[in-house]
Amino acid sequence: MAYEKPVPVPTPETQDFWDGAKRGELRLQRCDACAVVIFPPRPFCPKCGDRSVSGFTASGRAALHSYVINHRPPRGFGDEPYALAIVELEEGPRLMSNIVDCAQTPEALTLDMPLEAVFEPITDEISLPKFRPAAGG
Amino acid sequence: MEPRAAAIVGAAETTELGRIPTLSQLQLHADAALNAMADAGLGPGDIDGVATAGETPASVAHYLGITPTWVDGTAVGGCSFMLHVRHAAAAIAEGLCDTALVTHGESGRSRVGVSRFGGSPASLPGQFEAPYGPAGPPSMFTLGVLRYMKETGLTHEQLASVSVVQREWAGLNPRATFRDPISVDDVLNSRMIAYPFRLLQCCLVTDGGGALILVSRERARDFPTKPVYILGTGESVETPMISQMEDMTSSRAFRVSGARAFAEAGISHDDVDHVMIYDAFAHLPIYGLEDLGFVGRGEAGPFIAERNTAPGGPLPVNTNGGGLSYMHSGMYGMYALQESVRQMRGIAPAQVEGARISVCHGVGGMFMASGTIIMTNEE
Fold first, then answer.
1. Which CATH superfamily does the domain covering B6-113+204-376 fall into?
2. Comparing C-alpha atoms, which of A42, A105, A25 is closest to residue B192?
3. Domain chopping of chain A, boundaries
4. What pTM does this model have?
5. In chain B, where are the structural domains located?
6. ipTM computed for the complex
7. CB A73, CB A82: distance < 8 Å
8. Which of B295, B292, B236 is nearest to B259 (CA)?
9. Which end of chain A offers a freer environment for a tag, N or C, measured as fewer CB atoms within 10 Å?
10. What are the pLDDT digits (tens) for B18-72?
């Protein structure tokens, strides 16, 4: 069955992130001047304004920062409630994602639980970073 | 800007609120604008400034037959009208126009004459949020609340009490959509929308509109209604992506906008008699009371549950019933402003006796933007 959920369309500024995700890597950027970690990707530092930033591969380790369990799925997201989550990466930035390999219940989804990134191929070009409970966590 | 440089001399909502399938969205703007003009004893030829969101200032000005010398199309969601009031007051002080009209109209429920919007999949929200299944504001605006609960100890019952208290206010307002009393149990047993939010913790979806007319302080006494002076104003924006808020449990835009408005007004929180905090969802009055500085961190839930903001309480909040019970067309900020004006004129259905200062605080998008207008009826 065709993939019906929204598919990201990379821009020049975000291409490295999506190329990384395709390879199973979570790509972030760091400001060369002030070392702040940057997400979403952009070719400058929103903290100090410096235009010199460098990409790096994040650890993939994260924690569950907050979430809701959505009971009204939009088209393509099936019929079952699912968690729309905010995860906090070990490197600092937060991003929206889904939590996989885990019951989608308040009991199973506890705040600050350790997570690790996994990458779900959705098209030939795009793999989506998602997160699952960390092994041994 | 100097306090009281401008005043609201016309204020009205659409003739009807609720379900209005007989009017297009543009006509809702016009219906509210004509009512506000009638309130001020003015006609389209007297208006020389137009600000609006949802439609363009050109659409509204042309439809109403206005030739403006100042326009503002700032569109930052439901608090756009707070920003319009702020900008209009500054424009009047600067002489860019003399009589400014701020309009809102939204066919939020009936969707008559509404252009559809949708984000591009190449936008940042399109790339980094949409793929994960956000289902509109109920599942996104609410994303930080579990974090807030963990950090502050806010309980589900306290959160539910927001809806209960506002329904009490709505019960005093004949124009409110929902007026029957509800209990904390009713809230916690209503249909789950996006855990931890249930149906009665989410705003209505209705049709309606509202308009305001502003002039300079010097002219304000020449109109039929009691002038409502703009005492202090603030605005800010944070992020169009809720996942990128600095702090999921507090709005930076609220803090910046609120502090600016209080400083400009030169008042303290003890001076405030009446508060409106845009409540698309039940956590917004909690964030608002804390981010505006009325209570400390983690205190807003108990403060509301203990009836401090309820009828008879020391700090009346959302006295029209709010977006949770009064009406919510989508960009609710205009209705919060209308209620503050009614309170300052002394004509609100649930009038706060002797109220002199009202703080009206709006949110735009999902913690994307904020605008704060402090009004007074004292010259």
1. Thiolase/Chalcone synthase (3.40.47.10)
2. A105
3. 15-133
4. 0.93
5. 6-113+204-376
6. 0.91
7. yes
8. B292
9. N
10. 999 998 889 999 999 999 999 999 999 999 999 999 999 999 998 898 889 999 9
